[in-house]
Amino acid sequence: MAVDYAVIVVYLAGMLAMGWWGMRRARSKSEFLVAGRRLGPWMYSGTMAAIVLGGASTIGGVGLGYQYGLSGAWMVFTIGLGLLALSVFFSARIARLKVYTVSEMLDLRYGGRAGLISGLVMWAYTLMLAVTSTIAYATIFDVLFDMHRTAAIILGGAIVVAYSALGGMWSITLTDMVQFVVKTIGVLLLLLPIAVVKAGGFAEMKAKLPTEYFDPLGIGGETIFTYVLIYTFGMLIGQDIWQRVFTARTDTTARWGGTVAGTYCLLYAIAGAVIGTAAKVLYPKLPSADDAFATIVKDELPPGVRGLVLAAALAAVMSTSSGALIACATVANNDIWARLRGLVGQRQTGRDAVGERDEVKDNRAFILVMGLAVICIAIALNDVVGALTVAYNLLVGGLLVPILGGLLWRRGTVQGALAAMIVGGLTVIGLMVSYGILANEPIYYGLLASLAVHVVVSLLTKPTDAAVLAAWRRRLAGEDAEGAEGADGAGDAPRKPSVAAGGTG
Average pLDDT for residues 353-372, to the nearest whole number? Predict the structure, then answer.
């Protein structure tokens, strides 16, 4: 394992070096949180693919292939479909808004007052996403170093927190590009063909496994439908995903770069299912399907290659963890803490370099605090699947309708949006208590309740002020966004109707 250890150590040292280099570039709030909105197509595609393909997509995707065969690809496949839908239909408009958070978008669209509740929901989602990604370090470090679970979480979490806090989005973008390359080589170009060859090829796999392992719908129609609701729609509204959209240099970059990343996700989904199916042939009686990835890597790959593939798994986990962490810190600072301190709507013009550095320090401090919380929760938490399911159910059930309603329906009002968030979120929570956390019913009925309440309340309340809608349309067209960014020194979105009516939003 000496060669494998060397590969992993070099990889981890490289991540820290990227963080240090990114610190030299992150001199303003815009540079720190959204990489100065300067990413071109190549870097944008790589970093977007890296953030959505985490430990669940790699280790979990292979596990689903082990359990269900080729239809195990559906979970990751629906993630790719969501990214494609976001990129084709919404990313250009989102990029032109020049905001930092989903809650700022809701305030722009509805004229304020929607941000705090949506910020709390989004913070809970990003926090649990970071926690579940951090827990995945334990699996990888256990295979590599036979390390205790707590030590593995602390080691992996400390590295991610360090490079994220040092350089913010610039560091995360650079590390994500390395992680994207490592994942492509390790999983697609090495593990996939080696696993198929070791299993005797596709003909031998078909001969040894039941026919349902090769049925594209073998996992079940209801399961696929639930994946679409949770993951496809989750891709449309998650702060961790939107924050990457905000990094695009142009709306064209956001559209086409995201389309490339979404297509890559579809290929990654199929690869994971095929690897899992091959593992079923080689190890038909594993105690847990999630052990399939680590087992086939440990037993079937030669030294050096094994280290690279494990580095690929580590890369997948780190990219999702760092993306969720900076999203969590951004929401906590900009959407929750600032509002609770009464700083909402206070626009600072002529902010000097010291003020800019202070904002960077504030956001860096929030990454450190949120990172420490993530590590502590990850050490204490056992039910990873349950925690992630709760997070996604709250996200989709509480925020999908207000966000898509704001983007697609002119008649939606702030009262309708707030009612949809509250009713959708409470419905999901109540039904999870009644049916169980992993049941499908909470997300089904939560979405229906949120949609019904949004439509009814919006139609029964006064339409959104015409000046707010006019400012919103100008912002969507990119006409006011540059001026707003310059006025703030960082692109802060206005949150009071009077500001929007004044034409500066």
Answer: 79
